[in-house]
């Protein structure tokens, strides 16, 4: 049975890397609600018109409209063998709507959390530095450049520390994630569809566990 993969994890846990690997190796599309809403700005459909009116008024898109957007996108051919959801569901109410959609589509739901200690997450984010020329990413704790704060590939270029990677901002983001995501994790735990992966390991090791969960018959 095809699976809807709900991939979760705090900022810095490596969700983006794992979603990319799943796309490349299992050929599952990553469906982002942000991308879908941006695409609707240009689309000429009744649903797109409805969403544009809401967004123009500065209103949050209600759950029933969001699930219609998800349903419309995931009805496309590239989602026939399953897909990865990014940004949805965010609440138990949305998760219940997704369950109904999964039944309609003949899909199973597999929730996966990449779990990592908060201290390590904080180091991953506060230690990030990137080259403004080539985009190469370093980390002063785990993958420092050969010369302090200088890109290995562009020796004349100073690395950049993003403004939102300060300790205070990172801590606030982690607290927000925990508060907003905990009810969703509890929901999927109660449904026995939550698979927890140790995110402290190498990306390939993490991927192998995720792939097993995705390919399992449960």
Describe this structure in words.
The protein has a domain at 3-116 and 181-215: 3-Layer(aba) Sandwich (Rossmann fold). The mean pLDDT is 92. Helices cover 47% and strands 16% of the residues. The chain has 218 residues and is α/β, with parallel strands linked by helices. It has helices at residues 15-26, 33-40, 46-56, 63-74, 92-105, 118-126, 167-190, 203-215, and strands at residues 3-9, 30-32, 82-86, 108-115, 128-130, 137-139, 194-198.
The beta-strand count equals 7
Structural class call reads alpha/beta
Major β-sheet strand ordering: 2-3-1-4-7
Helix content: 40-55%
Strand content: 15-25%
- CATH class descriptor name of one domain: Alpha Beta
Q: Give me the CATH superfamily of one domain.
A: P-loop containing nucleotide triphosphate hydrolases
User: What is the subunit arrangement here?
Assistant: single chain
CA radius of gyration: 19 Å
Mean pLDDT: 92
CATH topology of one domain: Rossmann fold
Q: Overall 3D geometry?
A: globular
The secondary-structure element order is EHEHHHEHEHEEHEH
Distance between the ends: 9 Å
- List the uncertain runs: none
Major sheet size, sense and barrel closure: 5 strands, parallel
- Total of helices: 8
The CATH architecture of one domain can be named as 3-Layer(aba) Sandwich
Descriptive terms for the model:
218 residues; alpha/beta; Rossmann fold; 8 helices; 7 strands
Short account of what is shown:
With 218 residues, the chain is of the alpha/beta class. Helices cover 47% and strands 16% of the residues.
List the helices and strands and how they pair.
Layout: E1 3-9, H1 15-26, E2 30-32, H2 33-40, H3 46-56, H4 63-74, E3 82-86, H5 92-105, E4 108-115, H6 118-126, E5 128-130, E6 137-139, H7 167-190, E7 194-198, H8 203-215
Parallel strand pairs: 1-3, 1-4, 2-3, 4-7
Antiparallel strand pairs: 5-6
